[in-house]
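I'd like us to work through together how a protein chain folds, taking it slowly. To get us started, please write out a protein record for me. Label the sequence line and the structure token line clearly, so we can match residues to local backbone shapes. Once you have written the record down, we can walk along the chain together.
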Amino acid sequence: MSDRKNRKDEQLDQYRTDDSGKHTTTNQGLKISEDEFSLKAGERGPTLMEDFHFREKMTHFDHERIPERIVHARGFAAHGEFQLYENLEKYTKADFLNDTSKTTPVFVRFSTVAGSKGSPETARDARGFATKFYTEEGNYDLVGNNIPVFFIQDAIKFPDLIHAVKPEPHNGMPQAASAHDTFWDFIANNQESAHMVMWAMSDRAIPRSFRMMEGFGVHTFRLVNEKNEARFVKFHWKPVLGTHSLVWDEAQKISGKDADFHRGDLYSSIENGDYPEYELGIQVIKEEDEFKFDFDVLDPTKLWPEEEVPVEIVGKMTLNRNVDNVFAETEQVAFHPGHVVPGIDFTNDPLLQGRLFSYTDTQLIRLGGPNFHELPINRPVCPFHNNQRDGYGRHTINTGQVSYHKNSLSNNTPSPASEEEGGYAHYQEKVEGRKVRARSESFKDHFSQATLFWNSMSDHEKDHIISAFSFELGKVGNESVRKQVIEMFANVSLDLAKPVAENIGVDAPTSGGSDVTKSSPALSQANSVQSTKTRHVGVLLDQGFDGSKVQKIINSLQSEGMIPMVISQKQGTLKSKDGETVDVQHTFTTIDPVLLDAVYVAGGNMEDKAFKMNANYYVSEAFKHFKPIGATGNGVDVLKEHDMQHAAGVVSADGAEQFVKEFSQAVAEHRHFERQLV
């Protein structure tokens, strides 16, 4: 047996390779002199098509997985509509942004980035937020994330980033997690990622739901109006319910308790008529102001602070219909940042430039060929005509003998449309420069906005960032990598680097720090919208409860927009002391406190030891995760057992009206982090 195995190994030896200590080459064996920058027309110019190394590297990466998406594999989607608040013709000639009477259909896919299709939804990760507008001028795709910046500045490095964050190739672990050696080795050696890492280690990377998650276009685009006047623009989605998050212990437990937590929340909200809403915001900078800021507006690792460039709210998107078939719609939808309409154009952001190539290339392998645009979910609502023919997945039956331009047999049709006829014309930007593989000097500040983000956080958010770094780096086995990361983030803040160093057992930095004092309050979730709408409240109820009082409270919570759910030891009905009955919606075994936004102990006989044990567990878990807790009647005894009746966010008012008032306020605040500071 061993001889046979050795012969097989020898047969495979010619295919084995060890890349350590070797020069980088193309797949044709050509040595490459630069692997950091794509080829551009000048340092801040557009990426050139002749960059064979970029195209080969990106094409190979795009085709690494079939049929699952390489990134954003774990996703869920819904249909909806977009309504414009005000005419934006001063900025853009895009028709759907010029007519407030029009309702534009949309399709939105939310996703995690790093994990496979079967990975946990509550993993610490960036979230995709991709929107397809079905406009009368063609499909427009706003393909963004829930974080406004990205890890890298040039698309040629995207395969490197994803290879580093994906499960390590020698053992296929860990799944959907960045807490491992290769990811943090990449971060330490690619310091342009500092700002994005701060966001990824913050609460933004573990959102409460898709409905309470901001979206960003990430890149700088252009808006162009009828006068051919251009402005730089960044796009924002602002959730009407505010931006809120889980806490890390809770997120980990949800991964085991309900792997479909985020998709289940979105699906049930739409089915119940609690339609998720997001307002569209734009930040606009005039072309003549391109260089007036202390950051490069084309750098995808930089944001535009809202205090310097205000966000104008211009419309609202409502998701009001679930998909009929997850595969046909959610899995087959194809987004592309290059799907634009007249009035929306690109900039020379080198990450965006590369994405304009990569997305089409990816769909060719994932969806089987060049006709993915004919799948129902991708098909535009307006007609399309061109001379493209045949190929895998062709649905269109073209008639006539002509399939070329120019021609006389069909009077030279289909023919290009003029700008006046709605034809797309690229904005004419003057481009000059040598063909170079380089990065603009204005892109080389990697730490000031990472510090701005840190400065903008509340005390509890800073504590969570320190804990996240400590957890992630605590999972890194290589001590040198841990030290490198600490040295890197000492450039952001010593108040961050020192406690993390202590937690992971490496020497704390003695030098570093930042002289950046600027902050942006808009970046802190502590300043987000507070609302009781759609908050899930577990009502812990036993036989013999105060029927009239409890029912009044439940009805009042519903009127405040909350979703009370009666939880007890067994399913069926519960009888109050005055003979009223209430249906039990969940037992303690079918729902866990980590799946709730708040807990209300309504009490009852409470003679069942199992009920009391479970009530104590629910209250202690909710308290640990800083959630609102309420109690009435003998439910208050549970609070007293834990000596928490006077803690922040814990309500035990006597009268029903006063209780609902105080409890509603506590629920609207979402979390009560004062508890961790005591």
Q: What stands out?
A: The mean pLDDT is 94. The chain is about 30% helix and 15% strand. Residues 350-366 form the longest helix (17 residues). The CA atoms of residues 647 and 678 lie 10 Å apart.
